[in-house]
Amino acid sequence: MMAFARRLLLGLLPFAMLACSDGSDGDGDGTGRVSIVLTDAPGNIRAAVVTIDEIYLQGSDGRTVLRDRDTTVNLLTLANDAATIVDQAIVPAGSYEQLRFVISGAYIEVEGDGGGSEIYATSPDYAGLPAGAVVTGELQAPSLGQSGLKVQLGGDDSFVVTEDAAIVLVDFDVSQSFGHQAGNSGRWVMHPVIKGATITTAATVVVNVTLGSGVTLPDIGGNPTTLAAFNATVTNSGSTTETLQLSDPESDGTWTATFNYLLPGTYSVGVTPPAGMTITTDPVLPVSVNAASGTTETVSVTVTSATVPSGLAFALGFDADQHQFAEIPDSPSLDLSSDWTIEAWVWQETTSANLHIISKWGTAPEASYELEADNGVLRLGTNNGVNSTTVLVAPTAMPVQAWTHAAATFSGGIAHLFVNGTEVTQGPMDEPANSAKPLSLGREGPPLASRYFDGRLDEIRIWNVARTQSQIMSTMSTVISAPAAGLIGYWRLDEGTGQTIHDLSGSGNDGLLGGSVAADASDPTWLSSSAPVQ
């Protein structure tokens, strides 16, 4: 969807020596101890799971097995983290040319063309698959189950084991290790290779951010802003960016992000404020940092000014790849019956089947109503509570990457659809049943929790009256002065920061990004809005 690369990219970042003790940790018998730590550079795939059956070093005297018990790892859980898969294996002292991983199985989960996700596995019977998973196609892993994935250690940088303890960091870059096979086979391939492998020590970059003397962060959408709404970023020479939210663990006014397990090299360091805010900093960003072997590089940034334009408007941006949504708890006021209207400003980033804009939906008898974009076409669905769903579909698609006002009304068993204030179709529909499900923005509600919208939403309104075309046309580009007669839900989405979306209708139907007070990847993003509403 929004940022998923569908081309074959091959690459496994070089592995690196993370630490080596100064004292002797061997047994004094010509052996050393080796540990292997696995980490991952972030990517856009939803899941990347591999089963490693064996890890061994190959030297002139043959194979030295470091681990022969299988372990299954989801690489996506290891961004800015690591998992130890070999712990102090005893290895004969000497030089080794290769480190090999024997991989017996794997699967990846990616965004499907029609919404939802698709799973590609080395075998439909792969033991690492989640329960009930349906495999869409094949994931090829050429020779990795026989000779193993080779990490080249030869040349001038051959891996020398002494009686000192060594920890080796192997970094999978998921976004570069999986890709579509050439041609139209529909297969995916896992074929990671080494790019200039060296024995080096992992680095750390710490970003510290403070406010300059006399600097106060402006409110956004009437809400106070702190540096907790800022992110720090590091970008490597391959243009892979890692993002971390700032935190103040010491409560001393210095907000910090620590990037662990970085391969040595040059990184571009930046700080991003919340949407709509412009900042100046000392030093001017981005800053280039050379993260050398075994070092911790600290970048200290002072925010010298921060401004927000007056009257700034916001919208929520939804990334279907990240399963992003907002959720308003169930309320009797949100049960629509004989007369009602739903309105929203909609920006489609991409189109696909059955992407839900507004949904109070589940499995019958708790399915009620949904407004969606079906391959770009506005569609209204209602369910009468006995698994009978009626739909009304607009005749043409809404534009992509442009703002469109979408509205649906219902009265006396007849529904009407409006696009930019113009009625495009009408027809008979069932009255929606009452439902205990929450109102979801940007996805089909639980327990289905699917069909994620890809784009932006703004100015969402729900009425318990059927508005006329002239009423819709006269107010669709105007902020409503609440309370207004019949207005039972009004989310302007102008907060610009934080987890809460406020209901301005007076009904008290506030909601949460990602359905939780805790920020995570399922939260849509606050964006400056260009929707034509004043």
Q: What characteristic shape results from the CA principal axes?
A: globular
Which segments are poorly predicted (pLDDT under 50) over 5 or more consecutive residues? Answer: 1-27, 193-200
CATH architecture of the largest domain: Sandwich
Ends distance:
31 Å
Strand content: over 45%
Helix share bin: under 10%
Number of E strands: 38
Average predicted confidence as pLDDT: 81
In short:
The protein folds into three domains: 16-190, no CATH class; 203-307, Sandwich (Immunoglobulin-like); 314-528, Jelly Rolls (Sandwich), CATH 2.60.120.200.
Question: Could you explain the architecture of this structure?
Answer:
This protein is mainly β. It has 3 domains: 16-190, no CATH class; 203-307, Sandwich (Immunoglobulin-like), CATH 2.60.40; 314-528, Jelly Rolls (Sandwich), CATH 2.60.120.200. 2% of the residues lie in helices and 47% in strands. It has 2 helices and 38 strands. The chain has helices spanning 174-177, 469-475, and strands at residues 16-20, 31-41, 47-59, 62-67, 71-74, 83-92, 94-111, 117-121, 135-140, 149-152, 159-161, 165-173, 178-180, 188-190, 203-211, 231-235, 241-245, 255-262, 265-272, 278-282, 287-291, 296-307, 314-318, 326-328, 339-348, 355-360, 369-374, 377-383, 389-397, 403-411, 414-419, 422-428, 439-441, 455-463, 487-491, 500-501, 511-513, 525-528. Strands 3, 4, 5, 7, 8, 9, 10, 11, 13 and 14 form a 10-stranded mixed sheet that branches. Strands 23, 25, 30, 31, 32, 34, 35 and 38 form an 8-stranded antiparallel sheet that branches. The two termini are 31 Å apart. The model is unreliable at 1-27 and 193-200 (pLDDT under 50).
